[in-house]
Write a structure and sequence with these properties.
- This protein is α/β, with parallel strands linked by helices and 190 residues long.
- It has a single domain, classed as Rossmann fold.
- Helix content is 37%, strand content 23%.
- It has seven helices and seven strands; from the N terminus they run βαβαβααβαβαββα.
- A seven-stranded mixed β-sheet has the order 3-2-1-4-5-6-7, covered by helices on one side.
- The protein binds glycinamide ribonucleotide (GAR).
- The site of glycinamide ribonucleotide has 16 residues, from α1, β5 and α6.
Length: 190
């Protein structure tokens, strides 16, 4: 059994898709959700979905308490599903090539500190991009710089608003993220 922990800061729609995807699996289990935002929608979602949700503060994140907990849960993979804090170096060291993030643009464009959620889609429209998409990538100590695992894209029309771009991106995230996680966690040879 592979144990996955999801980290989330927001509404948690991706977390829900991942949980649904692995529901009933005898090979992959979502053991916990870790959330840094006490008012995030993911907290109620987690309750509805029956997955334990641990809300943590910056201190326990920085001083290693959260990492120790996650390790004690026999976690194999950490999945960032809309998680907005930088991952500290001790996490990266403890889970080498075992932390995966989803970013709502085609990295290396529109990544880095402060580039998240609607800021990304606003920047894409302001730059007059003809396409956008999603990137699933390994996580290192820098925002959005780890190696790319998967990308998918869609056209941005001249009439598209940032909200339109966000909606198109979310469709791809929900369609692709769970499958890409499955292919990483359960490679065909295992
Ligand atoms: C997703 O679009 C994800 O790509 C983005 O946050 C959203 C979370 O939505 N992540 C980032 O911007 C990371 N830099 P959700 O809470 O509904 O899953």
């Amino acid at each position: 059994m592979k144990n996955l922990v999801l980290f989330a800061s927001g509404s948690g729609s991706n977390a829900e898709k991942i949980i649904e995807h692995f529901k009933g699996s005898d090979q992959v289990r979502i053991t916990h959700i870790y959330c840094n935002n006490p008012s995030a929608g993911i907290i109620q979602r987690a309750e509805r979905l029956g997955v334990p949700c641990r809300v943590f503060d910056r201190e326990s994140y920085k001083n290693g308490t959260v990492l120790k907990e996650v390790q004690s849960l026999r976690t194999d993979w950490i999945i960032l599903a809309g998680f907005l804090w930088l991952i500290p170096a001790d996490f990266v060291k403890a889970f080498p090539q075992r932390i995966v993030n989803i970013h709502p643009a085609l990295l290396p464009k529109f990544g880095g500190k402060g580039m998240y959620g609607h800021f990304v889609h606003e920047a894409v429209v302001a730059a007059g991009e003809k396409e956008s998409g999603i990137t699933i990538h390994y996580v290192n100590e820098h925002y959005d710089e780890g190696a790319t695992i998967f990308q998918s894209s869609f056209p941005v029309l001249p009439s598209d608003t940032p909200e339109d771009v966000a909606k198109k991106g979310q469709v791809l995230e929900h369609r692709d993220f769970p499958k890409v996680i499955e292919s990483l966690v359960l490679p065909a040879s295992s």
